[in-house]
Amino acid sequence: MTDAAFPGESQQAAEPASLDDVPGWFWDHDRHSFDWFLGRQEKAGVTGDLLEMGAYLGRSAIVIGEHLQPGETFTVCDLFDSDAPDEENAAEMDLSYRKTLTREAFERNYLAFHDELPEIIQAPTSVLSRGHIPAGAFRFIHIDASHLYEHVVGDLQVARVALQEQGVVVLDDYRSQHTPGVAAATWEAVFNHGLKPILLTECKFYGTWGDVEPFQRELLDRVDLAVGCQLSAETVNGRQVLRMTGDSEGIDRFRGSRHRERLAAEAARREAEQSAVEARRALRSAHDEAAVDLAARRARAAEARRPVNVAKRAARDLLPPVVTSAIRRARRG
């Protein structure tokens, strides 16, 4: 889903200041693509509910929630810290994110950017096929739950029924080495069940059961597309498919959270305090070095004032060099 801290690495801050502080796997090109598809619908006056199957700690949900319009509902379905419905799914969760995924963390992250939580269904996505969501009511669905083939097939069936005619479905990990089940289910839906690919990014598949031509025409015309996003066209089984590559140039950063200013002020205060501590430490070190140097100079001065040393200097200064050399040889001998 996202590109911040990963499971097993340093834990996230209790309150995120920016979207980058929310762990996950959600790259800039996909964040921009979510904004593009959702924003296009809004500009065209399209209304409809939003759905995310599998949310992890909320990074993509936060972006989707930014596009929630009056009268619409945003639903998130995820197991969070509940038990998985079968052993395979449990093993997948244990391998990937069981130690870090909690509903509490998701809600904390989401509320850092939005005033209200989405409708949350804490359960396997399979429950969505049992009347939890109305048919034909959704304009955008993101599928990023289980990677097991049978589960993804079920999620796609739910999406097909739930989406409006020109609704958009997005599938995560459609081409990753560790998720062959997602790839199999995705392309099976394309070749056998009428799903039409619109756009492919490195990690996500964007498609519809409606007409792809309006979407692809505007993408190729670069309507609202960021500068660094490059498009190329492929043909798959007689259908045009667009691919997005390039860099993140021109993709606006997502707005900061409600905690940003306070956390920035706290960070600045901690930095100032640390700088003051380092300055005091440097001053003490300089004082210590000066004291050591002064003590050494005083010791040398005291040594020079000892009577025997005074006599030696007087002899060296007053006696002829020949006599002084003779005395030194006699002492050595």
Write up what this structure looks like.
This protein starts with 27 loop residues before the first helix and ends with a helix. By secondary structure, the chain is of the alpha/beta class. It contains 10 helices and 9 strands. A hairpin with a 3-residue loop joins β6 and β7. α5 packs across α6. The relative contact order is 0.11.
Termini Cα gap: 88 Å
Give the helix level as a range of percent. 40-55%
**Beta strand %:** 15-25%
Overall shape: elongated
Please write the string of helix (H) and strand (E) elements. Answer: HEHEHHEEHEHEEHEEHHH
Radius of gyration: 35 Å
Count of distinct strands: 9
Provide a short characterization of the protein structure.
This protein is of the alpha/beta class. The chain has helices at 28-43, 59-65, 87-96, 103-111, 149-162, 180-192, 213-220, 260-305, 307-318, 321-332, and strands at residues 49-53, 74-78, 119-122, 138-143, 163-172, 196-200, 204-208, 229-236, 239-246.
List the topology elements.
Blueprint: H1 28-43, E1 49-53, H2 59-65, E2 74-78, H3 87-96, H4 103-111, E3 119-122, E4 138-143, H5 149-162, E5 163-172, H6 180-192, E6 196-200, E7 204-208, H7 213-220, E8 229-236, E9 239-246, H8 260-305, H9 307-318, H10 321-332
Parallel strand pairs: 1-2, 1-4, 2-3, 4-5, 6-9
Antiparallel strand pairs: 5-7, 6-7, 8-9
